[in-house]
Amino acid sequence: MSGDTPEPGHRPLPEDSMPTGGVNAPVPVAAEATPAVDPRLIVRQEGLKGYLIEFKRRLTSGELGSAPVVVALVVIWAVFGSLNSSFLSAQNLSNLSQQIVGTGMIALGVVFVLLLGEIDLSVGSVSGLCAAIFAVMNVTHGVNQWVALLSAVAGGALVGLVQGLFFAKVGVPAFVVTLAGNLGWNGLMLQILGASGTVNLSGKDIVSRLYSTIYGQQIAAYGLAAAGVVLFLGSSLLDTRRRRAAGVPYRTLTDVLVRTAALAVVGFLVAYTLNQYKGLPLALLVFVVFVVVLEFVLRRTPYGRKVFALGGNIEGARRAGINVDWVRITVFMICSTMAAIGGLFLAAQIQSASQTSGGGNLLMNAIAAAVIGGTSLFGGRGSTWSALLGALVIGSIQSGMNIQGLSNAIQFMITGAVLLAAVVIDSLARRTQKSAGRA
Question: What is the pTM of this model?
């Protein structure tokens, strides 16, 4: 029969390879991925119940955000506060807010590189190099402090440009480029410092003043908190209006007000604590401004969307017309520039640039701060607020253990354990997202 005769060039499948339901039976397919639902739509439809639905969805899909680090910070403060009441004193917390700025600035740059799924192992040496450039130019050679400051920051940007070119254009892995840079820039720092090996800052220069200045008027801290709340409320309402006009999901007015109230509580509590000691440290203010501005760059500009696109799917980004090489180079420039700024704050903290600048565990602390704060090592997920939260966690651990008189060995082990826990959480969250079809 013609129906039983196979066509030329075709071979009939064995019976045991046919679908069990016959030729017309549906072929089994993979389980459907969990559909992405905008949280604004859930909250608007369900009200208060929507928050619970969205929270449960985030947990089950691995979208933990900053929740783990916030919980960790609360636990750390509770433990050290119970062991020694001075840990939660206004003086210690105010000092802590200044001490985390140097490492936090470096971690801000690391966040950008991690968003690409890459790593920069040279940030410690770059911070020491740029601190040495400023100190030698301003103190040793008497160059104007502003010129010395701009030269140091420009030096950091130049380092990032060189490393970015090797990575993006030559194709050398970022790990190798920055590992070589870690050695090379450290050697250049030693060469710049010269035979003495140490250059002490005057204490009256712009870098020292940026670190040590504290605004004692209470209106400064409270004013900053109020300005932050107003700025957040205004931007949220503007975003809601824009999204509503575009016909896409938006946050309800209640949702916006609840978030604004939560920010107000945190902001004014921080302001109150700072005012109980000396007031608002200028270094903390500068750090927060950098966090907010760079977060705006990442979330609200085409450049930021390109960074996330590369971290999520580099081939897809390339096919979408994104200049991959340019984004990579600029990201490494941002990272090294922030390392330079962080190095200047660290030099101001100890009032010198020396052969040990940028050494020790600075590199690990900067990378750990970004990862512990919630930026993924796998790229495509993170925030500049990760740098602030992560630096606060690491700084709190170090401060608490110093108060308890624990050795550096114990501090290193505990910090390493916290870093490992953060990476484990990140890995598990990514695995959960994959299983939910969201990664």
Answer: 0.85
